[in-house]
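Holo prediction. Input below; ligand is zinc ion.
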Amino acid sequence: MIDRPSAKLQVRRLSGLDFFPADDVAVEELISAALEAENHEACRKAFDSLIYDANRCPTPGDIRRVVRIENERFKSTWANPIKPSEPLCAKCQSNGYFERPGGVFDRCDCDNGLEFSQILLDQLNQKPEPKKSSAPTEAKVQRTVRLAETLEKI
Ligand SMILES: [Zn+2]
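Structure of the complex:
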């Protein structure tokens, strides 16, 4: 978790982009998304890649997604200083993801992109979507019983 002024500072970097919210409440959403960064470096890197060639302001969802990736990276080999620096990928600047026209983020097909999808996959496996119970509800059972009784009478 980073401090509020730092999160705010990063969000202010977006203020020159199209569709930057004029509404304080909407700006607050962007800040709270930025606050999910585990440290300043992860936050700064997330915003660097969000801003790079962006022409519209990212949504809170965009920010959360990229911040989460940078958080994970920080925990993994990404922060390992022994890792030799390689030339940056021309497509994604070695972020593993890039922005398509229309503001959709997509995975790059380079090694970093593969790492990126692995991180996403791990996250999906860690947090499975809560499944809706397929067991029939009490009301449903009663309706079925009533229907069966009615059918018997006919
Ligand atoms: Zn790439």
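The helical segments are 4-12, 24-34, 40-51, 60-75, 111-126, 138-153. That is the main takeaway for now.
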